[in-house]
Write a structure and sequence with these properties.
507 residues; Amino acid/polyamine transporter I; two-stranded antiparallel ribbon; 4 strands; 75% helix
């Protein structure tokens, strides 16, 4: 099967890699990039939601403002569920309320780690580096704030993901924004609008799965891996690195959500543990400078030396990179959480609010501290993305750290890709119908885009990924405003039943 998958990938890419054969001296990586980058540039110029608009002389992408307003609204409207539900969320993940008779395919914990594997990834390694490089240490503050506020948005969308999920006769679950937008708005006599938003979301979700959930991961995993001297033979050969990763991903995703969950619930704790332990070592060695580091973060966040425009620039970068990392408001995680074994939609929403906290407040902050402690927070020395974070870890711990980070980067990328393949597949089958042809055609295309992502430039990948993933927030959050009132009612009812003992603990 592995040989067959490899052959299919190469065959599919032949038109891409031969389009510029007249330039014989170019590598396959260069040829693929030459074909992909102009397409992305055209999309960036013609898709409205990525275009900035001026606020007091500073250009702000519309999608960032959309995410910030949504997160603030849901935090206040849901009675600060991001704080109130935190302890209960931990109990749910531990399985205290797991009823073995509940419908679904995976446990609360498996749903959480599957969704986390789609968010805790190279956005935490490379994305934070991009944020700090662009906006300075102060961007970290706004990333943390975006993570805390995003917990509320994640609660709303994942509650709805379970509430409106569909379960077929074989027990297979389909859920996410496509379903709660179409079915939820139909209940409010807005069937046409709901269908339009659902289709729009599904199209962008497929694009997001190929972009941020795939190409960005492959691109930065390759950059990290090939930067190590022992693997330098991969330099300039991203195509072949992508083929190897695509085959490994293909072997897992053929098995569906249960196969994905069984892999992610083993990989995610390991990879997060390895990365967090390494980051904590550097933080521990520099603990005497922790006050100064947070001083840089807070001071930089409110730095008006460059004027109001400079301040807004730092804020925007922080929120944008946080949204890309934790995906709160994007709606993707609700697809994974819809498969959870529970008859209580609110319980899964509460579990989901842990994701932005772990992803952004904990892991992203650790990465930022490592960059600051090692001096790369103020001087990137010409490095970008994962390469910058790798250099910081090597400076902080020694040359062996780059191998640890390379290992973590590949695991981060791998887990994110297999999770996003599930998100994209559900959107794909929503558009084209659930059939074996649709299933295998999507998985085949997904593997092809892994190879493309390994071959093209970071700039083109980031632009495409931002357009698709952040674009998903427009139809999703728009629909969430209409459905927020019923989520609020369900939340009050859930906690009243917890208080009365109607919802029982099983452990």
């Amino acid at each position: 099967m592995v040989r067959k998958i490899s052959s299919l990938i190469i065959m599919a890419l032949l038109p891409v890699i031969t389009f510029s054969q007249e330039v014989a001296e170019k590598s396959w990586d260069e040829k693929i990039n030459d074909g992909f980058a102009p397409i992305v540039a055209w999309m960036a110029d013609n898709i409205f939601f990525v275009k900035p608009f001026s606020v007091i002389g500073f250009d702000v992408p519309l999608v960032v403002l959309w995410l910030v307003i949504g997160a603030c609204f849901f935090t206040v409207y849901m009675g600060f569920i991001n704080i109130k539900g935190f302890v209960h969320a931990i109990g749910l993940v531990k399985g205290d309320y797991d009823d073995p008779n509940d419908k679904g395919e995976v446990s609360h914990f498996q749903a959480l780690v599957t969704a986390l594997s789609g968010t805790v990834g190279l956005g935490n390694i490379a994305g934070v580096a991009v944020a700090v490089t662009t906006g300075g240490a102060g961007a970290t503050f706004w990333m943390i704030l975006a993570g805390l506020l995003g917990m509320s948005t994640k609660f709303v969308e994942c509650t709805l993901g379970v509430k409106y999920r569909q379960i077929d006769e074989n027990g297979a679950v389909s859920g996410g924004p496509m379903y709660y937008l179409s079915e939820g708005l139909k209940k409010k006599n807005l069937a046409g609008l709901g269908k339009l938003l659902a289709v729009m979301f599904a199209v962008l979700c497929v694009g997001g799965s190929f972009g941020g959930g795939n190409m960005f991961q492959a691109n930065q995993a390759f950059a990290q891996f090939s930067s190590i001297e022992a693997f330098s033979f991969f330099q300039g050969n991203g195509f072949w690195f992508g083929v190897i990763i695509a085959i490994l991903v293909g072997v897992v995703i053929i098995g569906g959500i249960k196969s994905i969950a069984s892999v992610t619930d083993k990989i995610v704790p390991v990879m997060v543990g390895v990365y967090v332990f390494s980051a904590l070592l550097i933080i521990g060695l520099n603990i005497g400078n922790i006050g100064e580091a947070f001083g840089q973060i807070i001071g930089g966040a409110f730095n008006f030396e460059a004027g109001l425009g400079g301040f807004l620039g730092i804020l925007v970068v922080g929120f944008q990179r946080a949204a890309f990392s934790n995906e709160a408001g994007v709606g993707s995680a609700s697809i994974a959480h819809a498969a959870a074994k529970t008859d209580e939609p609110v319980s899964e929403g509460i579990v989901a609010l842990l994701e932005p906290f772990i992803d952004t407040v904990v892991v992203c902050t650790m990465t930022a501290l490592v960059l600051i402690f090692t001096g790369y927070g103020s001087d990137n020395q010409g490095l970008e993305g994962a390469a910058l974070t790798s250099a910081a870890f090597e400076t902080g711990l020694g040359s062996w750290a780059k191998y640890v980070l390379a290992f973590a980067a590949v695991l981060f990328a791998f887990s994110t890709m297999i999770s996003w393949s599930y998100y994209g597949l559900k959107a794909w089958t929503y558009l084209l119908g659930d059939s074996k042809v649709a299933d295998y055609s999507y998985k085949f295309l997904f593997m092809v885009f892994i190879v493309i992502g390994s071959s093209v430039s970071l700039g083109a990948v980031m632009d495409f990924s931002d357009m698709m993933i952040l674009g998903m927030a427009f139809p999703n959050i728009f629909g969430l405003y209409f459905l927020a009132s019923e989520v609020k009612e369900d939340l009050h009812d859930y906690f009243s039943r917890i208080k009365s003992g109607a919802i029982k603990k099983f452990k």
